[in-house]
Design a protein that fits this description.
By secondary structure, the protein is an alpha/beta fold. It has a domain of 177 residues: Flavodoxin domain (Rossmann fold, 3-Layer(aba) Sandwich), CATH 3.40.50. Helix content is 35%, strand content 14%. It has a five-stranded parallel β-sheet with strand order 2-1-3-4-5, with helices on both faces. The chain has a two-stranded antiparallel sheet with strand order 6-7. It is globular and about 55 Å long. The mean pLDDT is 94. The structure holds flavin mononucleotide (FMN) and iron/sulfur cluster (2 copies).
Amino acid sequence: MLGLYFSGTGNTKYCTERFVHRLDSAGTCLAMESIGTAAAILSHEDIVLAYPVYFSNLPKLVQDFLRENGPLFARKRVFILATMGLFSGDGAGCAARLLKQYGAVITGGLHVQMPDSIADEKALKRNREQEMQLVRKAGEKLDAAARQFAAGKPPQDGLGAASHTAGLLGQRLWFSQKTRDYSSQLKIDRAKCVNCGLCTSLCPMSNLPATPEGPHPMGRCTMCYRCINSCPGQAITLLGKQVVRQYSLTDLLP
Ligand SMILES: Cc1cc2nc3c(=O)[nH]c(=O)nc-3n(C[C@H](O)[C@H](O)[C@H](O)COP(=O)(O)O)c2cc1C
Ligand code: SF4
Ligand code: SF4
């Protein structure tokens, strides 16, 4: 089994690895931005495709990945795993509709609630105990879903017509422009930046090339929040104006 994921801050990577390895201890898990994804897709029949939901939609990087690699998914059995901070309606349905156009067979969908990765907005912030509980529950949900999958009855989260309507009305009608293109809204506060180079090396879009004055955003941000959550100077912002609290999944795992 192949787990193919995009994960800005680690939630989706954790969920993919847990789900895939419950089903196949020798299964391979690969990030979408890594080398060798096309060969991996071609050599597997069962694929778990996983991503975080952004504004009830696919991150732009995931949209582009699926469009560029769509034909490789023909006749593949694809189970879709979507992580989210609260709600997505049809998070799994977004990729399912696209992949069906390329002839993929969608075997099921799973929505997993995880801590919110947006570091510069207070909206979904919970205390540490609540976040640890969320991660525990997510683990239980993943294990239960793996058992259902193994029994031939995979969950179908986000794939039906009611979910589609909920995703549209709940968010996409109002926020669809947010994920239509890469963002040029990311800002770096030069006074806070210590020019450590970490964001440059972490960005999956190579959006932060180094310059003598510090990293320079190129307007190709997929809004994954990886750099914002990792910056030692809390110098980077995107949707909000200042970093409220940085997020690290490793602090919440047992
Ligand atoms: C730009 C952005 C938009 C998001 N939009 C939603 C959303 O519409 N609904 C939701 O429940 N969570 C939303 N989230 C939260 C993430 O989906 C959630 O934290 C996810 O588990 C992060 O996964 P990752 O650690 O693999 O990047 C959003 C996060 C970001 C960065
Ligand atoms: S991670 Fe933060 S401090 Fe380091 S170079 Fe990037 S913006 Fe500057
Ligand atoms: S600039 Fe930061 S938030 Fe944007 S894609 Fe790169 S790492 Fe993610």
